[in-house]
Amino acid sequence: MTFSINQPLFWLYLFNIFLVIATIIHMLYQRRSPQNLMAWLLTLLLLPIFGVILYVLFGSRKFFNKRNKPAISMRSVSVAEPDNELAFQLDRLLQSNHIAGTTNGNQVSLCHTDVEAYSILMEAIENAQHSIHIQTYIFELDKTGHTILEALIRKAQQGVQVRLLIDAIGSFALYRNSKRLRRLTEAGGRYAFFQPILHSLFKSQLNLRNHRKIYLFDQSVLLTGGMNLSNDYLGTPDTTPKEGRWIDLMFKIEGPTTFHYQNIFNEDWFYTTNERLPSPQPPDNLPTTPGEIMQAVPSGPDINSDALFETLLHSIYLAKESIHIVTPYFIPDSAIMHALLIAIKRGVKVTLITPDTSDHLIFDLGRSSYMRELGEMGGQLFYYQDNMLHAKFIMIDHKTMLIGSANLDYRSLFINHEMVNFIYSEPLIEQMSEWLEKLLANSIPYQPSDNRIRRLLENLTRIVAPIL
Question: How far apart are CA 67 and CA 63, in angstroms?
Fold first, then answer.
């Protein structure tokens, strides 16, 4: 088939070639992984014009204009060197990426159940005297969310500074019907939606979502982890959904680490609303007792480097005995996958716990080929059998662990705004080891499917996995 220069199809074909070349140049400028480059290249070739549109909408990895949201700057407070070599190496790598060093004197406690997490959250709201700063991906005004909102309204009426930052895509139902938040503004509080859809669409930033979980009170009490604000995650026993709540993690933290979370919230709030909140103040009285040694690590488009990815990769290569991974979505970058396979060959015990069935079928298909490969190499893989497992947790050699909002997939490691903590505390690691054992008690060993059609779908999905 040939085209005449006077035919519209010829000019459309030429225009598509121009767009594809421009898109490829942009991808190369962003220094993407070969895996991600190949996935997008196939999309561009197989879907003329439409593939370019998809890339413009969903292909962004960093902000095009740094003036819109400058890279977050962190400075260290209450610095303390970790007491084991693994933690020391990770701390040094993070600081070289301009992430603040470890802090000591933190008091960290696990919220053991969804009901306990809800009670602690409501207590923190009630006890707040000066400020309540909440940042979340999902905020649903179901019974649990409505109760939280009413508590925030009461505090705003009392003169407490209430600021609520919600992701526009994650909370799309509330974004479409934001008038339900009007009473909060009438009470003196403020809310905002991160990356409003039309605004981010025109700036090619629709793909850059805010997945951070920051529930901060008076810059002294912090709740963080993977829990969003809805009945699916937390609430009272009488509001438990029929299918049961998702299994997730929430930690209460008091100490110097809250300074870093306040800094992150202030930057995200200013970017969204142009309101400059008072600069966070370092703790006046630095702790004299060690407490928990930990390191707050933001990642995403507003971080110049890929510090989280680099540190996670480095920790896998440093592992000598064991790697435990809990994640709802297991679609690792090729470098992470290779590091895990090499770890198994080195004699490191690699254990993965993931939900039997997640809330996204395409992610379940996308993970299968990776799990099959990991299992064939000797990894210990398990499907959690109870409710949806949404927790994110990685532990290396029982010496350091990672908790926070990031999943082990390309989106969390390279695209979303995330917030995690590396914790180097033996007592807390021991406590989380017991939590792991409880998960394993409700899990069954992974068995790969023998169905050839299923295996074909797994391999096909792996091609597009880096752009999910």
Answer: 9
Q: Which of 172, 58, 54, 168 is nearest to 415 (CA)?
A: 58
Query: Residue 430 contacts by C-beta under 8 Å, 6 or more apart in sequence?
Result: 398
pLDDT for residue 466 = 61
**pLDDT, tens only, 45-77:** 777 777 777 776 666 665 544 445 666 777 777
Kindly report the pTM of this predicted structure: 0.87
Q: What is the pLDDT of residue 323?
A: 98
Residues 167 and 195: beta-carbon distance below 8 Å = yes
Closest CA to 402 of 74, 90, 83, 82: 90
Task: Give the angle subtended at the CA of 340 by the CAs of 293 and 251, to the nearest 5°.
Answer: 30
The span from the CA of 279 to the CA of 56, in Å, is 35
- The amino acid at residue 105 is G
Give the amino acid at 328: P
- Helix axes of 452-464 and 361-377: crossing angle, nearest 10 degrees: 100
Tens-place pLDDT, residues 202-248: 666 777 899 999 999 999 999 999 999 999 999 999 888 978 899 99
